[in-house]
């Protein structure tokens, strides 16, 4: 179990900074009984200029609002205001490398009807950067991702995470590090808390939005690829296709970009350190701490473009 707070920790609760040990929530809340709440996972980093910066805070708080509205939850906060509050929360807790968790929740209500107000808590705790680079052993889950005809799959809703917990626990009980879930059509969807990309011949592939939470890290990876000329295709694909990949990775706010060594019994054959995926991992690591991406990186895409051209020329 993590140590998320101690007797000095403060959180922000409905307009005030409160000691975590003294904060109260209503046990009659509709959120507690039915998993009806929305949340975010945000990271702050101590940057190369030794400043503490929240990574993409606008994207995260905008998504929190969209998630609440998708679930018909009243939302009265403003992104700019929440970003200021979050910086203040980090200062009050003396946090630099942190994980930030806002949760919008409902008042006491045992019925299924709409509420007239929502509440907001923002918590933060220390999250040291991951050291080392152990590749994940991943298991194809027996659990599917929630069907978008049953849930607002684009919303980051607490109730969806029962699915994530079941899948992750199943994978760990079977000796794996993490699960990979398929969608209702048996195409590859995502991890319990991260999106997936695979690499084949220097090109990247990732499932399109629709049956996944379209992550902010996923969008950042797409931006990195666009900038450096790496070709990315969004498409549906099967586990069999994924198993023919050279390399693969998960990406998410907490996981950042993390390589997958194997899926079930299939090992991805490329040397991780020589993959485009690893270069994207490094570029992401630089981006979050606002450090210049090394010049060689921008040449990666070009090198692959030339390589693809050569292959195409050979085929012609
Ligand atoms: N999918 C799921 C199910 C998630 O919980 C997360 C983490 N929020 C992601 C993908 C990645 O999203 P992001 O990059 O915005 O953290």
Gap between N and C termini: 58 Å
What's the total number of strands?
16
What name does CATH use for the topology of the largest domain?
Answer: D-amino Acid Aminotransferase, Chain A, domain 2
Mind describing the biggest β-sheet?
9 strands, mixed
Strand percentage, roughly? 25-35%
Shape: globular
Q: Can you tell me the residue ranges where pLDDT is under 50 for at least 5 consecutive residues?
A: 306-316
Are any ligands bound, and if so which? 4'-deoxy-4'-aminopyridoxal-5'-phosphate
Please tally the helical runs, counting DSSP H or I stretches of 4 or more residues.
8
What is the correct CATH architecture of the largest domain? Alpha-Beta Barrel
Keywords for this entry:
2 domains, 16 strands, 316 residues, D-amino Acid Aminotransferase, Chain A, domain 1, 31% helix, globular, 9-stranded mixed beta sheet, D-amino Acid Aminotransferase, Chain A, domain 2, single chain, alpha+beta, 7-stranded antiparallel beta sheet, disordered C terminus, binds 4'-deoxy-4'-aminopyridoxal-5'-phosphate
